[in-house]
Write a structure and sequence with these properties.
With about 350 residues, this protein is of the alpha/beta class. It has a single domain, classed as Alpha-Beta Barrel (TIM Barrel), CATH 3.20.20. β1, α1 and β2 form a beta-alpha-beta unit. The two termini are about 15 Å apart. About 45% of the residues are buried.
Length: about 350
């Protein structure tokens, strides 16, 4: 299977020690550039009370991306559904689809997108919604969008407005096989996030999704993509240096429970020396999950991963301290691929 499309996942990092709002404007600048370069999709992520990342409302960022661009598909990667009402999300994305026909993707996920305090604050004054309800919420969301709510459902008579503008494509996000079969059963696309975690992922995840896929209006066959972290530079060593900022952020967040703004690469590598041996090993293990090197080297690795996992599309996430190295990656990849 040949790699046919490359896309963008934007976590709206805050670059160069600037103010937090700057990350939102950098997202729009990058989206315009990637639209002109010919990328296929541009998805915005959701993070709550997370220093270093600017966007807590991906649906708002997707709307602005769609307004600022002409051809690229705008969407979310993703809306963290356990925080919200499926009916409200259906309304929001029906409106976006009506305003930007054929260009909207609704990516959903079950992760909190932040710490537990933010998770509880988003639910207040009610209790948080348990992850066990995610399949039910997902089914309701797609039922609202497709007009296929079961007759015995208490909200089956509700109509999502506007009801004459079509529905966005729905995608489910996962970092392992946990959501792949659910995505297939509900007729959604499936995005496998290889940039999350260091565990092994293989073809069986995509195969399971495709085997149980049920067509729905607008998505009559299974669609799957993989999302990878990649940084291009003149050499692998230079790319590793640039990547150190994000890798150290991950060590802080996932091993130490701290979410701080991004450090410069030099600071990150210095701070790495002060980590425990176990956390230094986690730093190195995480670095190995990135695609690093020249654009041609990174694209070769993307093609191998796409073939191994049986997909035709790769989505690139790129978090760097400086904005210029980040823009360079997307320019380099486009020049080599598109």
């Amino acid at each position: 299977m040949t790699l046919k499309r490359i896309s963008v996942l934007d976590q709206s990092p805050i670059h160069d020690g600037k103010g937090e709002a700057s990350g939102l404007y950098d997202t729009l600048e990058l989206a315009k550039m990637c639209d002109e370069l010919g990328y296929h999709r541009y998805w915005c992520a959701e993070h709550h009370a997370t220093p270093g990342y600017a966007s807590s409302c991906p649906e708002m960022m997707a709307a602005h991306v769609a307004c600022a661009t002409k051809n690229i598909r705008a969407g979310t990667g993703g809306v963290m559904l356990t925080h919200y009402s499926p009916f409200k999300i259906a309304e929001t994305f029906r409106m976006l689809e009506a305003l930007h026909p054929g260009r909207i993707d609704l990516g959903i996920g079950r992760a909190p997108g932040g710490g537990q305090l933010a998770h509880h604050a988003l639910a207040s004054p009610r209790d948080v919604i348990s992850h066990e309800y995610y399949p039910q919420q997902s089914a309701e969301l797609i039922g609202y969008l497709q007009g296929t709510m079961p007759e015995n459902h208490p909200f089956s008579d509700l109509r999502v407005e506007p009801n004459d503008g079509g529905s966005p494509d729905v995608w489910m996000l996962g970092s392992s096989g946990g959501s792949s079969e659910l995505a297939g059963q509900l007729g959604a696309g499936f995005a496998l996030a290889l940039f999350i975690g260091t565990h092994e992922r293989n073809r069986s995840i995509i195969d399971a999704y495709e085997q149980v896929f049920r067509p729905v209006a607008g998505m009559d066959k299974p669609q799957a993509l993989i999302a990878v972290a990649a940084i291009t530079a003149d050499s692998k060593e230079e790319a590793e240096y640039i990547a150190a900022s994000h890798v150290y952020w991950k060590v802080q967040a996932f091993r130490l429970g701290q979410r701080d703004p991004l450090h410069t690469p030099e600071q990150a590598l210095d701070l790495k020396k002060k980590l425990s041996p176990d956390n230094q090993a986690y730093f190195d293990e995480t670095m190995k999950t990135y695609l690093l090197g020249t654009a041609d080297e990174c694209l070769t690795e993307m093609e191998v991963l796409a073939d191994d996992l049986g997909v035709e599309e790769v989505m690139v996430v790129n978090v760097t301290y400086g904005f210029e190295p980040r823009k360079r990656t997307y320019r380099d990849l486009a020049a080599s691929f598109i």
